[in-house]
Amino acid sequence: MIWAGFAGYLGFLAAAPRLGRRLVWTTILVLVTAFAAAPVLLSHDVYSYVDYARLGVRHGLDPYVHPPSAAPGDPAYADVAWTEATSAYGPLFTLLTYPLAWLPVGAAVALLKAVAALSVLGIAALTGRIAAWRGIYPLRAAAFVALNPLVLVHVVGGAHNDGLTMLLAMAAVAALLSARELSAGAALAAAVATKLSAALLIPFALVGCVPTGRKYPYMEGNRPVGRLLAGAPAAAVAIGVAAWLGFGWDWLHGLGLAVENQSRTSYMSIPILASRLAGVDPAATRTAAALLFAATIASLLIWTWQGADWLRAAAWATLALLLATSWLLPWYLIWLLPLSAISRDRPLQLLTLMLTAYQLGARIPL
């Protein structure tokens, strides 16, 4: 069934220029709504979001210190998969979920699924708009993101907060390209405070804004870096104060846990697959992949400094992260899809589709 969906997705992308705006967006709305209305699919991370909120509000326990098992009698606990794990999510996301603690668990989950669906629709709309600015067919770019089977099944169906993270990140990209650097910096800070994965965009945005006298084909020269640097710290300070009031300094543990995930392995990780096929120690392949990733990021930043399109470089960097990580999960593809859609780089887009196909059959046997 999912392979038929993938074939339909490819066919829809090919036909998008001839289908018209109404049909493309109707298809996107219908499918995103259908997956939002379906029961939670595959991953139960959304129940962890609700449980962490209930820990803080109903039980007076800091979710960055106490795992779900600290309150096993809570109604959300029965559906939590990672019962011994404290929160690895950003403080902004955790604070935003706190009001959900006053809702029944089912209602809280339904609301988070709605947020995931609206986030995907928002990402698709922003991707289409940015694509038009960059001379790319906007309907195909929007469909490239919103109709991807992994997005529908995992990001919408599983209500993962990666959708909200990338909505904020793409809002930052749109603001930056439309000369609203203060807003761009604030949106980037909010994205990182939702989930750390958005931080990969920051160095490319900064280097892309450094005045060099060069002109990119999608905007009149480089934008001033100062306003971007002003917007991000101002938002970070505001979020940091709210996080300190809510969690003290404990929320910093979540950043450490997000990085610590690299010491784990998932079945679909490319380095781990390579180690299994070659009979090599997984620790060695993880180290090699990390070194190769670092070298790739350095070369892409140099390329950007020399005048290359920073969005294209950021998209390649995101693909490199997904290929190098030892903790690859299907919903992480949303980090790459909108950047790939606006990259104007056909090989990158083909690789994105190949990565989609590689993960399609995954049932996440971690």
Output the keywords.
366 residues, mainly alpha, 66% helix, globular
How do the strands and helices of this protein lay out in sequence?
Layout lengths: L1 H18 L1 H17 L7 H14 L32 H7 L7 H29 L4 H9 L2 H8 L5 H16 L3 H14 L6 H9 L15 H23 L4 H9 L9 H9 L3 H24 L4 H15 L12 H5 L4 H14 L7
Helix pairs in contact: 1-6, 2-5, 5-6, 5-8, 8-9, 9-11, 10-15, 13-14, 14-15
Describe the structure.
The chain has 366 residues and is mainly α. It contains 17 helices and no strands. Helix 1 runs antiparallel to helix 6, helix 8 packs antiparallel against helix 9 and helix 9 runs parallel beside helix 11. The chain is globular. About 3% of the residues have low confidence.
Q: What is the N-to-C succession of helices and strands? A: HHHHHHHHHHHHHHHHH
Radius of gyration: 20 Å
Overall average pLDDT: 89
Task: Give the N-terminus to C-terminus distance in angstroms.
Answer: 23 Å
Number of domains: 1
| Backbone structural class | mainly alpha
Brief write-up:
With 366 residues, the chain is mostly helical.
